[in-house]
């Protein structure tokens, strides 16, 4: 990589330019130059890279699949809204060299670095940013520039003292290890050191017994504590001598607190930890709306990148709106609008890739079927169809995610009943989309009687508009119109599903909350955004989850609180996109009503107490003025049933985004904690206008680990922003 590689930079099927790519000696910067002119065209930092995708995992590279094998192709994905960089290497070996090298460079950023063992790469990155004249040394003026870049408004005298203490050579500049000393002094964590000394008898180390004492009393680790203490020492103690003596230094203690084991998110819940053998309707399912769109709903771009991003994010219910295109080729786009179009075959090719699962046991992917197209061929494979080519039908009327593993389900309209699928064509169909405003009225007209039969031209038109082969693929998610909870109980089946616009769902929640919860214990429900949301904004998914709606479809391309809640709920259970609903939402006799928790004989209120202690290296606000330093505050929000909705915030700290100290305690009463999500938000206070967003982290209450914990912040787009974090103490009492 450091010698440089000649690769093709690709922007479209016809735009393929050879560029010379090289990783700079700092191991933090990659630049590329034109082969023709030799001029450097662009450069980017490793810290800007979110991930690297292998093979044809972009729309552009998929369009070149016949020309270039996947072994030579990869995509560099950047944080935020910067476009991806699609590359084609000269050989599979060169591609792997870059892919593996980039992975090694970006993986250490998963959790914040500590002062004791701060990454040389990270230090080098800060040094280069501050070394304005690029002479490999840092004078005091450049140190002041660095402090501003790091979001620190430090007194000049104090900054000078730190500088002189690190300048061992008394040269008036810092270089090499001197800069490391300066950085360590700058990142000293007094609040962590005082906590360490509380449990350390000599103030220099924690013995094995002292560490066990801390883990039991503060972190509430009650099982295998001695074994855990030994593991933490072996994993995080930097000194070989200390490890041999089974003790933990202050540096090792800080490394533990900044690690996954010291995170607020219970590490055991990161893996697939829930029962996956319940009926499908017993799970919340990560779901997207008009997945193919990456912008607005009227003129936005349709792209397979929308599917790739959603799948990478753990989404398991995708929408494919398929319409007739030229020469009988089905196209995917938002019908009756000006959105661009993508071929149906490219979409199904993307969905068919086996690498989308975020878990060793990925549950099924649910696709929304085409509303009114006549594709010439419906794709299928041996995993989803029987040996005779027909769709597989499991014996259970409501199969489980475990049974459906590695299958693809289609949700959509169907010609006839499920029972008729294996015996011959039936007599019921509709040619309207779920999201069509007239869908329910049309369905009412077509189904005046439950199980009624249609005859004549109307039936023939329906059969023509919906391909029989496609209809046969709809097994467990047959779309039906909703005509009331009582009629659904009398006539509907577990393998059927109804869709509601957000406004109708809210009305049902308001008028019949308990009946809605009942309905969702045995049948799937899908909620979709209002047609008025042409800007691809989102509704609040929490109120839909409160009544047990499983498929709450959101516009994944739009960042905001709603997607933070979605990511927060589905960040658990191996990020497989399925979360088991609480027991009282799976019980068909439940009395639970989210609007009236008192009517439900659940446990008493739970008290959540959060001490917000400090923040570390909070990022600057986008588009802020040079030299500006943020005034951070922390707001904690509870999202759950109406009685639990609340928020509280700390005071703001003036001019310190580097290491602000709040030491404030916030307290909440939760009546239904099993449905609650907790969102931590950092904002830059502004007394004259709306506060600016800095970072956030959202998780389900059930995944909170009590004790002294770090919260690793995410950007507005849901990507990590290391090493930005909050340090808190969590106490939960019932």
UniProtKB/TrEMBL annotation:
Domain C2, chain residue ranges per copy: 586-715
Pfam families membership: C2 (PF00168), EF-hand_5 (PF13202), EF-hand_like (PF09279), PH (PF00169), PI-PLC-X (PF00388), PI-PLC-Y (PF00387)
EC number per UniProt: 3.1.4.11
Domain PH: 1-107
Residues spanning the signal sequence: none
GO cellular component: endoplasmic reticulum; nucleus; plasma membrane
Reactions that this protein is recorded to catalyse: a 1,2-diacyl-sn-glycero-3-phospho-(1D-myo-inositol) + H2O = 1D-myo-inositol 1-phosphate + a 1,2-diacyl-sn-glycerol + H(+); a 1,2-diacyl-sn-glycero-3-phospho-(1D-myo-inositol-4,5-bisphosphate) + H2O = 1D-myo-inositol 1,4,5-trisphosphate + a 1,2-diacyl-sn-glycerol + H(+)
Membrane-protein topology: Peripheral membrane protein
Domain PI-PLC Y-box per the UniProt entry, residue ranges: 470-586
Comp. bias intervals (Basic and acidic residues): 380-391
Annotated segments matching region Disordered: 353-404, 416-460
GO BP term, example: lipid catabolic process
EC top class, as a word: hydrolase
Name recorded for this polypeptide: Phosphoinositide phospholipase C
Organism taxonomic ancestry: Eukaryota, Metazoa, Chordata, Craniata, Vertebrata
Gene this chain is encoded by: Plcd4
């Amino acid at each position: 990589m450091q010698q440089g590689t000649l690769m093709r930079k690709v922007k479209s099927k016809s735009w393929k330019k050879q560029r010379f790519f090289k990783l700079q000696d700092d191991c933090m910067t990659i630049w590329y130059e034109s082969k023709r002119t030799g001029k450097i065209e662009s450069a980017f930092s490793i810290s800007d890279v979110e991930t690297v995708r292998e093979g044809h995992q972009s729309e552009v590279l998929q369009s070149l699949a016949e020309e270039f094998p996947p072994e030579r192709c990869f995509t560099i994905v950047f944080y935020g809204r910067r476009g991806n960089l699609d590359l084609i290497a000269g050989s599979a070996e060169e591609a792997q060299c870059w892919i593996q090298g980039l992975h090694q460079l970006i993986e250490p950023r998963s959790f914040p670095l500590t002062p004791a063992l701060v990454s040389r790469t990270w230090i080098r990155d800060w040094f280069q940013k501050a070394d304005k004249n690029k002479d490999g040394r840092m004078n005091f003026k450049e140190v002041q520039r660095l402090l501003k870049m790091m979001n620190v408004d430090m007194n000049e005298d104090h900054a000078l003292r730190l500088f002189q203490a690190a300048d061992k050579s008394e040269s008036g500049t810092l270089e090499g290890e001197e800069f490391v000393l300066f950085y360590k002094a700058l990142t000293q964590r007094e609040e962590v050191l005082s906590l360490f000394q509380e449990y350390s008898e000599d103030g220099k180390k924690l013995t094995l017994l002292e560490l066990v004492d801390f883990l039991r009393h503060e972190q509430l680790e009650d099982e295998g504590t001695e074994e855990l203490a030994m593991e933490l020492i072996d994993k995080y103690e930097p000194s070989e001598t200390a490890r041999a003596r089974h003790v933990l230094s202050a540096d090792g203690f800080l490394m533990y607190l900044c690690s996954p084991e010291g995170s607020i998110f219970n590490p055991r819940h990161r893996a697939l930890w829930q029962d996956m053998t319940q009926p499908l309707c017993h799970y919340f399912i990560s779901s997207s709306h008009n997945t193919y769109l990456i912008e607005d709903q009227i003129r936005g771009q349709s792209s397979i990148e929308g599917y790739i991003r959603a799948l990478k994010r753990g989404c398991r219910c995708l929408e494919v709106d398929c319409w007739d295109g030229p020469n009988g080729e089905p196209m995917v786009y938002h019908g009756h609008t000006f959105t661009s179009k993508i071929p149906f075959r490219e979409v199904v090719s993307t969905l068919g890739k086996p690498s989308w699962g975020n878990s060793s046991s990925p549950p099924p992917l649910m696709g929304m079927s085409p509303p009114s197209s006549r594709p010439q061929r419906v794709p299928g494979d041996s995993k989803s169809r029987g040996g005779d080519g027909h769709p597989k039908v499991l014996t259970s009327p409501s199969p489980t995610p475990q049974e459906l593993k590695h299958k693809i389900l289609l949700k959509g309209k169907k010609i006839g009943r499920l029972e008729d699928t294996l015996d011959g064509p039936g007599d019921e169909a509709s040619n309207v989309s779920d999201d069509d405003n007239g869908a329910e009225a049309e369905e009412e007209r077509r189904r005046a009687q439950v199980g009624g039969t249609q005859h004549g031209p109307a039936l023939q038109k329906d059969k023509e508009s919906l391909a029989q082969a496609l209809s046969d693929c709809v097994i467990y998610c047959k779309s039906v119109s909703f005509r009331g909870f009582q009629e659904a109980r009398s006539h509907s089946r577990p393998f059927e599903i109804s869709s509601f616009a957000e406004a109708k769902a809210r009305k049902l929640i308001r008028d019949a909350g308990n009946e809605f919860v009942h309905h969702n214990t045995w049948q799937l429900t899908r909620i979709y955004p209002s047609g008025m949301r042409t800007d691809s904004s989102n509704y609040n998914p929490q109120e839909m989850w409160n009544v047990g709606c499983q498929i709450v479809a959101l516009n994944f391309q739009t960042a905001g609180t709603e997607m933070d809640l979605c990511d927060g709920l589905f960040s658990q259970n191996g990020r497989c996109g399925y979360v088991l609903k609480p027991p009282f939402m799976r019980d068909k006799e439940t009395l639970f009503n989210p609007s009236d928790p008192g009517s439900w004989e659940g446990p008493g209120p739970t008290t959540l107490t959060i001490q917000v202690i400090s923040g570390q290296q909070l990022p600057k606000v986008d588009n802020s003025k040079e030299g500006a330093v943020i005034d951070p505050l922390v707001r904690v929000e509870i999202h759950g049933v109406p009685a639990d909705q609340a928020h509280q915030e700390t005071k703001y700290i003036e001019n310190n985004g580097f290491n602000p100290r709040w030491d404030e305690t916030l307290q909440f009463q939760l009546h239904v904690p099993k449905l609650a999500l907790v969102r931590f938000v950092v904002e830059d206070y502004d007394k004259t206008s709306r506060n600016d967003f800095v970072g956030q982290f959202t998780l389900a209450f059930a995944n909170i680990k009590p004790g002294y914990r770090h919260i690793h912040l995410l950007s507005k787009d849901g990507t990590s922003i290391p090493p930005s974090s909050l340090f808190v103490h969590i106490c939960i009492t019932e």
